[in-house]
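Technical annex B. To support the medicinal chemistry partners, we prepared a structural model of the target in complex with flavin-adenine dinucleotide, based solely on the information shown next.
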Amino acid sequence: MADYADPRRVREEGEERSMSRASDLRTLDAETDVVVIGSGIGGLTCAALLAKNGLAVTVCESHVTPGGAAHGFERDGFHFESGPSFFTGLSAENSANPMSMVLAQLDERVESVAYDRWHFHFPEGLFVTGSNEERFHRELARFVSPEAMKEWLRFEEVMKQPLAPDQTHQPFSSVVDEMLSDSFLRRLCDFDAFSLSGMDAGGTPLAEMNFMFKERFQSTVDYPIGGSQAIVDALVRGLEKNGGVLLLGAHVDEVIVEEGRAAGVKLRRGGSLRTRRAVVSNATVWDTQDLFPPGALPAAWCEASAQAPQCESILHLHLGIDASGLPEDLPIHHVVLNSWDVTAPQNMCNISIPSTLDPSLAPKGHHVVHAYTAGNEPYEVWQGLHHKSDAYIALKNERAEVLWRAMEKIIPDVRERARLALIGTPLTHERFLRRKRGTYGAAYRADLGQAFPGPATPLDGFYCCGDSNMPGVGVPAVAVSGMMTAGAAGA
Ligand SMILES: Cc1cc2nc3c(=O)[nH]c(=O)nc-3n(C[C@H](O)[C@H](O)[C@H](O)COP(=O)(O)OP(=O)(O)OC[C@H]3O[C@@H](n4cnc5c(N)ncnc54)[C@H](O)[C@@H]3O)c2cc1C
């Protein structure tokens, strides 16, 4: 089994791609209004909105491809996704999803397919769910008593109401604890919260769940044709058509600080870009502080960033499989929950088979599969292993077994069907996505009153955006973060 990529190939590709962009760099003013470090969805959102508002913007991306956690990659005719595959509101008119709002503002569209069914494999059995509310209620009624069902319907109504201003910082568990006594329903809420934020109902902000309760039943759930990369590409189009520049293979080593303000960035490949207005970091809070020389930022801010609570990492199994004889109506999404100890490592396995909705993602007669455990794969287990060592390969095979077994619940003979299998680990995540300890994202707990830092920093002209700056790891949250940071940096 191969790792994601031969690092030599990536380096060579990086050189080629950055060479092909070197002419862009030469034609750039050595000075620009804003530099955005990183082309994750948050960084691209911020950059594209600033460019649309008339500022000169350059995005410096370390990787050879844009998108960060949402980038796609090709292997043997299969198009794989490194991260998100669950989206809402892409095809709905007037969606409340901030990502759709950003795309509308940039006058960009992403063709997508709406669907309404996905499967949960709970310890008690199969739970067929989706965006059809009646079907969800019918299914839930098979798992709980009529009294519990009444409890749920009241709870659901409350969850769909607009939040009062004093509720925005409350945890989801505040409503769960007040309204739900049935143990299955309470566990279901932890499961739902963990799937979205990487934390249980106590850690997850009520505002995030309030958005999702409305969005999945009242808007659309849809898959972008071309995968998450299609959203990334739309944001890059939105950036470039407004005069912004994306530099790939352009790792930022240092933020230049002069006279108490951020004045530009130094690139690892040589050269620097100076800024008239702002530098924005889309790297995580833990990676951002490594971009400064010692003493450039107040010690208290660095300390707070270093101590920011962190979700664990992710284990991925990417498969290209023979699809012959599989049901035509195989759903795209499946979650296999091994026990109700929801947040335990190796417990919740998420599975996405996007070629069921977009056949162009796999060679004819095949499917592309992304199975992963998100937010709970311990980094310590992997720390210090060399990615070519026998010990690393053995550990990959051992720990990916849970994902193979989860896949067997969906497609019993999946091992025989596999034409390609790639295992990604916290080390892969750290290396290719430039995220410290390969983290899934920040874990500021709503029930402990831990607040996300937002865009501003103590350094003049320096801002942050991305999924460690906004509540709720995920595309809607980073789109909001990108919007807020564009507002702050462009003001
Ligand atoms: C497996 C998985 C599944 C997911 N599923 C979903 C889902 O179904 N739905 C959903 O909404 N969300 C999902 N998410 C979450 C969502 O994908 C992320 O929260 C979001 O994409 C993160 O965007 P970001 O802007 O914070 O930055 P990131 O994606 O982390 O991008 C940051 C970028 O900065 C670059 N960078 C870092 N340091 C430097 C430097 N020094 N110089 C230059 N560049 C640098 C990195 O290379 C990277 O490209 C999933 C995430 C994962 C990992």
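Notes passed to the chemistry partners:
The chain has three domains: 7-67+229-309+442-490, 131-221, 311-438.
The radius of gyration is 22 Å.
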